[in-house]
Amino acid sequence: MSNNRAQIRHDIRKARNNLSKNQQELAAESLKVNFIQHLKSINPAKKSHIALYLSNDGELDTSLLINELWNTDQAIYLPIIHPFNGANLLFQRYEKNSPMRANRYGILEPKLNCSQICPLPELDYVLMPLVAFDKFGNRLGMGGGFYDRTLARLYEQHWQQPQLIGLAHACQQVDELPIESWDVPLKTIITPDKTYCW
Which domain holds residue 134? Predict the structure, then answer.
C-alpha cells in the first residue's frame, strides 16, 4: 500500500465501491447490530444524542442503523456545512420529516434550523465516515478536513464527550497511515466484522 495519502484514498475508494449490493446490505445490517451492542454496553438505559452521516460514495450504509435508533427513541443529528464558515460542520437534529437539501457536494443535509443545532459537547457520539484507517486508530478522510477542523479544539482540550467512532468496511483497513499534525485519531472504529478500541 502506498504511503501517499491521495493514492491511498484512490485505492480504498475503489475497493469499497467494488463491493456488491449484497455485500453492502449485509454490512449495513452488521453495522446496526454492532453499534447497538456497543451502545448498550456503555449506556443501556440512556437516551443518547448521536451524530451520524448519510452514506455516499460506497461508504458503509447507515440507513438501517438510523432507523433502528429512531425506533429506540435516540436523538439523531446529521452534519451540515457551516453556513458562514464553510470549512467546519454543525450538527442538526434529523427526524423522519426533516426538510432536506443537497450541499455543495451533492450530499443531502437538513435545511438549516438554528433551533435544532446541537453544540458539539452535548453530543454523546459522533459516528464518522472515513476512507481508510490503520491499526493505531488513525483515520484518513476524503481530504476536505471538515471533521478534523470541527473537532480540533475539543481534541486539544482532551475532551471526553462526544465519543468519536469511525465506521468502515473491513477492506478500508491498512497497516499504517501517513498522518499529519491536524489528524484527529479515533478510539473506536466499527466495521461489519469487528469493533476496534484503543
Answer: 5-197
164 and 184 Cβ atoms separated by less than 8 Å: yes
Region of residue 163 (left: phi > 0; alpha: psi -120 to 50; beta: else): beta
Residue listed under C-alpha cell 450541499: 103
Residue in the block written with cell 443531502: 108
Q: How many domains does the chain have?
A: 1
- CATH number for the domain spanning 182: value is 3.40.50.10420
CB atoms within 10 A of CB 46: 10
DSSP helix/strand/coil, 41: helix
Q: Which of 72, 32, 88, 33 is nearest to 55 (CA)?
A: 32
Per-residue model confidence as pLDDT tens digits over 10-57: 999 999 999 999 999 999 999 999 999 988 887 766 789 999 999 999
Taking the whole predicted model, whether its pTM rises above 0.90 is answered as yes
